[in-house]
Amino acid sequence: MGEKRSVMFVCLGNICRSPMAEAVFNEVARQKGVADKWYAESSGTGGWHVGCSPDPRTMTVLKNNGIEYKHSAQQFDLEDLNKFDFVFGMDKSNVDLISRKKPSDNTKAKILLLGSFDPEATTTGKTNIEDPYYDADLRGFEKCFQQCMRSCQAFLDKYN
């Protein structure tokens, strides 16, 4: 058996979208029987929440969908571009920031927009996974979950 492939999910603070994507990715990989072939982490471009647990609304939506998850927020490090095979930004600004700071073209990771794998994006044009942090209820978090689910399923269908 070969070495595991690896993915890093990146959003702004690593308490909403990227930890949700990490948890969803691990669950989808488990359901597809390929969890032993993949390693996933998540981080944020900013360090405001380092060491914190995910937003309680993220945890509620994951729990409502039968996903157990534990995480402590961490900040994205440019070294991650050589540790991971794929680095997924949750929106275009995350991808642009990582790409601008990228030290060279000789890094291991492919920097991609997670939502670009969402099959619904071909009809809606919505490839950004919007930040639900300022939403008053769970709707934005549920939408984020569904986008992550569709995107992670399509990504694993393509790369397995």
Detailed description of the structure:
By secondary structure, the chain is of the alpha/beta class. The chain is 39% helix and 14% strand. The chain has helices spanning 17-31, 56-64, 80-83, 92-101, 121-124, 139-159, and strands spanning 5-11, 38-44, 86-89, 110-113. The protein has a four-stranded parallel sheet with strand order 2-1-3-4. The radius of gyration is 15 Å and the shape is globular.
What descriptors fit this protein?
4 strands, 39% helix, globular, 160 residues
- H/I helix tally: 6
* Whole-number mean pLDDT: 95
> Approximately what portion of the residues adopt beta-strand conformation?
5-15%
Outline, from the CA principal axes?
globular
Estimated structural class: alpha/beta
SSE layout:
Layout: E1 5-11, H1 17-31, E2 38-44, H2 56-64, H3 80-83, E3 86-89, H4 92-101, E4 110-113, H5 121-124, H6 139-159
Parallel strand pairs: 1-2, 1-3, 3-4
Give the structure's gist in a few sentences:
The protein is an alpha/beta fold and 160 residues long. 39% of the residues lie in helices and 14% in strands.
